[in-house]
Amino acid sequence: MTKNKPKAEGQRDEAEGQDGGWGWVLVGALFVSTSLVFGLMRSLGIFFVEFVQYFEESAQAISWISSTGLAAQQFFSPLGAALCNAYDARVVVMTGGCLAGLGLILASQATCLVHLYLTMGVISGLGWGLVFTPMVATVMANFTRRRALALGLGFSSIGLSSFAFNPLFQLLVEVFAWRGALLILGGLSLNIVPCGALIRPKRRSKSPEKINSESKPRASILHRVSSHLELSLLFERPYITYTLAVTLLNVGYFVPYFHLVAHSRQAGFSEYQAAFVMSAAGATDILGRVASGWFSDLGHFRLLHLLSIWTTLAGVFIMLLPVSSLSGSYPALMVISLLYGFCSGALTSLVFAVVPMIVGVARVMGALGLLQLIESGAGLLGAPLSGFLKDVTGNYIASFMVAGSFLILGTLTMATLPHYFSCKDPPPPQRPSPEDKDKSLQSEVEPSVTERSVI
Predict the structure, then answer these.
(1) Ranked by mean pLDDT, which of 49-63, 160-174, 325-339 comes out on top?
(2) What does this protein do (predicted)?
(3) Same domain, yes or no, for 284 and 190?
(4) Looking at residue 447, what is its pLDDT?
(5) Could you tell me the residue range of the domain that residue 67 belongs to?
(6) Residue-wise DSSP of 318-370
(7) Whole-prediction pTM value?
(8) Measured between alpha carbons, how far is 444 from 139 in angstroms, rounded to an integer?
């Protein structure tokens, strides 16, 4: 009777975790938290002019503030995943929300650029890194059939908040100056804390870590650190292949966000027309995230195949962006931008939804953290490479051609995954259960005990 009780409880928890009602509450928490991370991060450019005028520094020096925040968010993502594996995702996300708000509040009292690097860059970036990966992994763990739709709905807040935050931040700067605006944004970021509080703590099974630590303390510590970071994934070919594909995709993905407006201006369109092109692409980006998630969950095609299709189409449309503007046709540029925005939004949710199929749901937290850490360098490389090609050639044609080719190269890399051409998903790898680990560790410890007794 006592042996069957834990098993029944485990089956009940697993059933509740699959597309359950509380999972949609967590989708709402992901919606709010991602808007307060990436939506806020995208809108910090409102403070760019204010910082240049106040600190009397170059634009390049000011631009390192947002770059430091983005790099810190991706760099600390594995730390957030490891802490969630070691402790509890609820505590980690709530701590990240406090750090994100604290960094912006301290930034409102900055007297030099170094203060902004440390506050808005490092402290807030650390908080963002502790929020995003755990929230995404928690939502994926609560959904099975509707996982892509759940992520699409959660990520749709990035585009919506980008539209809403830009005029809001401009109004705050005009009314309260940049110091008062940052103070208000710090308080706004503290809303991440209740989002983290909505995460239900999970029951952890007992493991013989005390026995292992007594026999081999150093090996036990290294093993626990490696397991929390999921470093073993770096030695598995499917995960390395998929990470490489996403990294290549990431090189060209952000190029239109940085240079499409400048390219449109260079093509002879007005400031209003150039800005509206990017806004229209952002609108279809929102539609693409939701539509892609809904269609993917119908189950007609494998998620990996749909990701390949959306990635290839996004790459093709990026390559077509300069072709449409060369003809001087604004409607042609608008149509291509709308199609690019839809495809770029459609692939975003699937990038994360495919990860559990590569590594299994049990290791998705660490897998997402390592993925963001590895792809962070590619995201920072894309814009400088595009700018370099523009300086060499004098226009953005080569920049968009190379950026689109990186997305197509990422699709070709995904095609080398095992069972890629199969019509059905192979069973995901399963992590050994705690009971199996207990048996294996007991088998290792028992011989040493018997030898001591004999001696």
Answers:
(1) 325-339
(2) Proton-linked monocarboxylate transporter. May catalyze the transport of monocarboxylates across the plasma membrane.
(3) no
(4) 43
(5) 20-199+224-229
(6) HHHHHHHHHTT-HHHHHHHHHHHHHHHHHHHHHHHHTHHHHH-GGGHHHHHHH
(7) 0.70
(8) 37
